[in-house]
Amino acid sequence: MLGLKLATDPRWVNIVESNIEEILTDHAWCEQKAASNAISLVTYNSELEELVTEMLVIAREELEHLQMVHDLIKKRGLKLGRERKDHYVNELFKFMKKDGSRKDALCDRLLFSAMIEARSCERFKVLSENIKDEELAKFYRDLMISEAGHYTTFLGFARKYTDNIDIDKRWKEWIEFEGSIITNYGKNETVHG
Q1: I want to staple 130 with a disulfide (CB 3.0 to 4.6 A). Which of 13, 57, 108, 187 is the partner?
Q2: Could you report the per-residue pLDDT of 71-102, keeping only the tens digit for each?
């Protein structure tokens, strides 16, 4: 369904298990950034009523996920660390087209968002199937389903709002680009790292 070029090596979970506090902190900040992204899409596209409505739903869900991760951190006696830079997302951001019409930029922003959700969904699936901690396995299974929904929402809106872009072609370009950079990741106890 996701069409990603490269699957995450399940051995990445061994790295994650070596530092649960780090993955949870990184995950919390990923949820915060996802909520902020949805709010930004509302801010810059307030005239698109359907998009605004759905982005508000996603923003709320992402904040709920942040709350859930924070609750897990507290329950385990861990601390929410400082915000981490997400180098993977920063590389994807550089690939986003920033020229053309406002609608063209919106479509690429939606594809950028879909790509992040797709990779997060895939990583959560790997975690849910391979982590020894049963509570975290269930937690990540539930979140994987949510991320898949967000992925399809972003991709659907990119298709809806395009005027002159072949979205399927551009999505394939995103898939190819992501496939070329993901080989640099999967070596750290972070969601995208």
Answers
A1: 13
A2: 999 999 999 999 988 999 999 999 999 888 88
Q: For residue 1, is pLDDT > 60?
A: no
Question: Long-range contacts for 22-26 (Cβ within 8 Å, ≥24 apart)?
Answer: 22/81, 22/189, 22/190, 23/189, 23/190, 23/191, 24/69, 24/72, 24/73, 24/76, 24/78, 24/80, 25/73, 25/78, 25/79, 25/80, 25/81, 25/84, 26/84, 26/86, 26/189, 26/190, 26/191, 26/193
The residue among 2, 5, 25 whose CA lies nearest residue 193 is 25
pLDDT per position as a tens digit, 151-191: 999 999 999 998 888 999 999 999 999 999 999 888 888 89
* pTM for the structure as a whole: 0.94
